[in-house]
Structures are given as C-alpha cells and as structure tokens.
Amino acid sequence: MKIIAHRGASGYAPENTIKAFRLAVEMGARDFEFDVHRTRDGILVVHHDFDLKRTAGRGVKIADLDYAELKKLNVAAHFKQDKAAQQIPRLDEVIDVIGPAAEWLNFEVKNEGNAYPGIEEALLAFLESRPGLFEKAVVSSFDHPTLKRFRELSPLLKVAYLGHNLNTLLLRTALRKAAAIKAVNFHLPLRLAFKMNVSRIKSAGFKVCVYTVNEKKDALRLATIGVDGIFTNFPDILGKWTLKG
Ligand code: G3P
Ligand code: MG
C-alpha cells in the first residue's frame, strides 16, 4: 500500500510548502500529492485553495495575482506549530525537491468551472519537459471536464478519477465516468472506504487510493481490504514503511 504524502508532510509543516515537501522526502516518502493552480502571469503553483484567505489571512485569488506579488504572502500564517514565513512554491520548485525521490506523483489540478483555461496544456508541457516525469505522474481533479480535456490531449497520461460529493449510490455512475476517460486510479474519500465499495471499484479495474487517512487504525484497516494507497498528512503514520509494494 502506498503511503502518499498529502500536501507534503502537512501534519508537521505548513501544507504544500517547500518545507513540507522537504520534510516528506527526509521522512522517506516516495509517493506525493499536491494541488496545482495558475497565477495571472501563467505560473503553475502549488496551493490547496483558490485564494489565500485560510493560509495567509488574505482573501486574494491566485488567478488575480502575478507570481511576484503572490510570493510576498506567508502561507504558513495558519499553521499553529510553525508560522515561520513560507511562500507559495512554483510547481517546478516542488518537483525539484521531490522529483528525485519520487516514484509516484499525484498532480491534483484545481480547476472548477475552468478557472484556469489552458492549464491542461501547460501542465502537460511541464510533465514532458523533464525526463521521466510524465511516467511518474498521475493527474486528478474534482472537475470532470478538466480530466476529459486531459484525456483528449494525451492518450497516454495516467488519470485518476476524483468524485465530488460522491456517495455509495452514485458510485455506479462514477465508475462509468472513470471508465469513459480511461482512468487508472479511483481516489475515494475515507468516509466511503468500506470493503464493499473498495471491492466494487477494484473489480471495475481501478486502483483505489483513499484520502485523507491520518489515524493509524484506519490505515491498517484499509491495508487489509486491498486499498492500493492512502493519502496522509503524516508520512510516518505506520511508523515504518513496511506496507509498500
Ligand atoms: O487528492 C486527494 C485529496 O487531496 C483531495 O482532496 O481537498 O485534500 O485536495 P483535497
Ligand atoms: Mg488535494
């Protein structure tokens, strides 16, 4: 079972910052998840929300600022254990840090309502700009039209279905949608990660990764029902990296 550093080692350092990614690498992580946005001047950056209200206490949207302005804000302001200033990193800076250690990289593209028109082409160009990066990449998005565009642009790209407001009743439709875009993975919220759902998804031919798993007892249960990976803010959740493979 993959232990995927969710937004870096975000239980120990401010999420989606270079500090959190460096720490995840130091902790031995090989699998990583992070969220991708784009600035007004076209720079791909890593941050969870569309604006900086929660992280930096400033209600400015990433799409409305150039990167030079954005990087002046402290996105660690929200993190009680360590508020030392951290900037929003560019995507290429994050890959510089985690790329050499990484086996598997989940680029979660935040693009509801096509907030960043053309982000699909920009990310694909980035993935193809570095040797071996495309092969390690899995792209996911809660925005299904975004995933469809990725698939149309690139038949070989690995894509993960990420269902918005999913429930067990909607699973059949979700599996159909995931198959239609030839997804390889299905990323499932913890609240739905029960044996029956996991078995249905696996029988449909997808690998299942579950988010966000921050309790060891959940991680151990998921390992026993055939889950392929867990997204966790604590890359040392199992103490040792014994369940990889
Ligand atoms: O990609 C898995 C998980 O990160 C999806 O939810 O809101 O944490 O980006 P969120
Ligand atoms: Mg995410």
Residue stretches low in confidence (pLDDT < 50, at least 5 long) are none
- Mean of residue pLDDT? 96
CATH topology: TIM Barrel
Which ligands does the model contain, each kind named once?
Answer: SN-glycerol-3-phosphate, magnesium ion
Overall, the morphology is: globular
How large is the radius of gyration? 17 Å
If classified by CATH, what would the architecture be? Answer: Alpha-Beta Barrel
Whole-number tally of structural domains: 1
Identify the CATH homologous superfamily. Answer: Phosphatidylinositol (PI) phosphodiesterase
Q: What is the string of SSEs from the N terminus onward?
A: EHEEEHEHHEHHEHEHEHEHE
User: For the terminal residues, how far apart are their CA atoms?
Assistant: 6 Å
How many runs of DSSP E, i.e. beta strands? Answer: 11
Number of helices: 10
Largest sheet: 8 strands, parallel, barrel
Q: Helical percent range?
A: 25-40%
Strand order of the largest sheet: 1-2-6-7-8-9-10-11
What structural class is derived from the secondary structure elements? alpha/beta
What is the CATH C level class, in words? Alpha Beta
Q: Per DSSP, what share of the residues sits in E-state strands of 2 or more residues?
A: 15-25%
Write a short abstract of this structure.
It is built from ten helices and eleven strands.
Description of the molecule:
The chain has 245 residues and is of the alpha/beta class. The protein has a single domain, classed as Phosphatidylinositol (PI) phosphodiesterase (TIM Barrel, Alpha-Beta Barrel), CATH 3.20.20.190. It is built from ten helices and eleven strands. It has helices at residues 18-26, 53-56, 67-70, 91-98, 119-128, 133-136, 144-153, 171-180, 195-203, 216-224; strands at residues 2-6, 31-38, 44-46, 51-52, 58-61, 104-109, 137-141, 158-162, 185-189, 207-211, 229-232. It has an eight-stranded parallel β-barrel with strand order 1-2-6-7-8-9-10-11, surrounded by four helices. Strands 4-5 form a two-stranded antiparallel ribbon. Helix 8 (171-180) links the parallel strand 8 and strand 9 (185-189). It is globular, with a radius of gyration of 17 Å. The model has no long low-confidence stretch (mean pLDDT 96). Magnesium ion (MG) binds at residues 33, 35, 108.
